[in-house]
């Protein structure tokens, strides 16, 4: 296969794979399409078997961390934690509908930071929609809130997003170092997002709601002992992430240890059964591995070399370079999904020996930027799909229109906050 044919075939396979992942013909799982895309690239010689194995092994730590987070979220969910937290948010609002919206946003940001954006999408979204429906409040502002906060709130810690785990592993960032660099940009991103959402939905959010129909938060906790163990384990695991490097441990080992404690406590209190393992999203792993291999095919076209050269021409750590890096990954994320965009960005940044500020700016674009198209991130797709299943669909046109003006504001504010963080640290 000559050079031109190789480029055309690779791009066709990659584009077809992305379209099939988004459309999901016959409702086949997304993993089928990424694995088929990877297989096609292997069969046609666009990716060698050795390159495929290396691409998968390069993400080993990220996949192990992903597994530990999925298991931790599932076990915490068995305690009734998410129902309890959502009802507690409504109770604290004391009939003030706008305070409830603020509380829901803060809860979403916390859950995303400590349990990942997919947990917010899969576990918190349906619970929050159930509360909103019970209170007879408009659901659209909350659907958009969950989609936005799941993405925008995922920058704070390595565990917030699979893209973070991949970058932290590739660039050897400790949990503490990552958190220290992203704390201020994350707060700026969240504050900007909340302000924009409140303004956008100012006419749809009523002033008051009747909270008489809400149950007591304690009533949705099936077993108080297991609930308390879950809360305790979450706190200990979060602290353990920061201390893990001191003991020479990978952070996912801490998460797995927490899962072990919760599994034992869950079995002892009859809140967890062995069959719960089947509830994990196992298909996410072949989905990610398939993407790793397919992106390798894309990288073999020389995209990484060209992009690295462009990046090297800009002044290291300059605000314009950070804005360009964040803008590029945000744009790519909304076109091809943030995970493949982050994988390509990782290779570009490694090859160009990019400054850490540029690395985090590119990551910020992939985290906070995928809020324009419904397929910008898996979390966005999950939130919108769950809302449709509950009969609370948000029109694609409305979502894209909001994202088109909100995303650039959020990405620019985040990148500038990151630039200021590094400037002050000099």
Structural write-up:
The protein is mainly α. The protein has one domain. It has helices at residues 3-23, 30-43, 49-58, 60-77, 81-93, 97-115, 117-134, 140-152, 162-170, 175-200, 224-243, 251-268, 284-299, 303-312, 319-336, 338-351, 356-368, 378-389, 396-425. Helix 1 runs antiparallel to helix 2 (30-43). The N and C termini lie far apart (50 Å). The mean pLDDT is 90.
Number of E-state strands: 0
Strand content: under 5%
Tally of discrete structural domains:
1
Note the total helix count.
19
In angstroms, what is the radius of gyration?
Answer: 21 Å
Q: Pairing-aware structural class of the strands and helices?
A: mainly alpha
Helix content: over 70%
The run of helices and strands is HHHHHHHHHHHHHHHHHHH
Main sheet characteristics? none
Model regions low in confidence, pLDDT < 50 over at least 5 residues: none
Estimate the mean pLDDT confidence: 90
Head-to-tail CA distance between termini = 50 Å
Describe what is shown at a glance:
The protein contains 19 helices and no strands. It is mainly α. The protein has one domain.
Question: Strands, helices and their partners?
Answer:
Layout: H1 3-23, H2 30-43, H3 49-58, H4 60-77, H5 81-93, H6 97-115, H7 117-134, H8 140-152, H9 162-170, H10 175-200, H11 224-243, H12 251-268, H13 284-299, H14 303-312, H15 319-336, H16 338-351, H17 356-368, H18 378-389, H19 396-425
């Amino acid at each position: 296969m000559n050079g031109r044919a190789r480029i055309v075939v690779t791009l066709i396979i990659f584009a077809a794979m992305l379209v099939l992942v988004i459309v999901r013909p016959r409702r086949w799982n997304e993993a089928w399409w990424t694995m088929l895309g990877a297989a096609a690239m292997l069969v046609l010689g666009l990716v060698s078997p050795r390159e495929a194995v290396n691409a998968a092994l390069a993400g080993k730590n990220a996949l192990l961390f992903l597994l530990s987070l999925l298991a931790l979220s599932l076990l915490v969910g068995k305690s009734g934690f998410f129902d309890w937290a959502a009802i507690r948010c409504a109770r604290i609002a004391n009939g003030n509908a706008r305070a409830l919206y603020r509380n829901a946003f803060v809860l979403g940001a916390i859950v995303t930071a400590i349990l990942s954006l997919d947990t917010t999408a899969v576990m918190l979204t349906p619970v929050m929609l159930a509360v909103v429906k019970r209170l007879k409040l408009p659901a659209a502002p909350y659907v958009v809130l969950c989609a936005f906060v799941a993405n925008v709130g995922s920058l704070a810690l390595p565990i917030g997003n699979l893209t973070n785990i991949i970058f932290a592993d590739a660039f050897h960032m400790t949990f503490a170092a990552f958190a220290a660099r992203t704390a201020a940009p994350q707060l700026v991103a969240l504050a900007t997002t909340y302000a924009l959402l409140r303004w956008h939905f100012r006419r749809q959010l009523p002033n008051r709601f009747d909270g008489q129909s809400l149950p007591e938060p304690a009533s949705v906790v099936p077993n108080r002992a297991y609930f308390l163990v879950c809360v305790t384990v979450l706190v200990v695991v979060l602290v353990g992430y920061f201390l893990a490097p001191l003991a020479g441990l990978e952070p996912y080992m801490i998460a797995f240890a927490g899962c072990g404690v919760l599994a034992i406590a869950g079995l002892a209190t009859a809140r967890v059964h062995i069959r719960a393992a089947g509830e994990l999203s196992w298909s996410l792993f072949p989905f990610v591995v398939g993407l790793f291999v397919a992106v390798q095919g894309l990288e073999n076209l020389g995209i990484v070399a060209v992009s690295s050269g462009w990046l090297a021409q800009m002044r290291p750590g300059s605000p314009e370079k950070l804005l360009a890096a964040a803008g590029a990954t945000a744009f790519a994320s909304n076109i091809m999904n943030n995970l493949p965009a982050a994988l390509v960005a990782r290779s570009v940044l490694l090859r160009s020996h990019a400054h850490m500020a540029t690395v985090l700016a590119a990551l910020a674009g992939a985290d906070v930027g995928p809020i324009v198209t419904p397929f910008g991130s898996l979390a966005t797709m999950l939130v919108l799909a769950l809302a449709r299943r509950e009969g609370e669909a948000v029109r694609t046109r409305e979502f894209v229109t909001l994202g088109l003006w909100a995303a650039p504001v959020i990405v620019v504010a985040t990148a500038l906050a990151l630039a200021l963080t590094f400037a002050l640290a000099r």
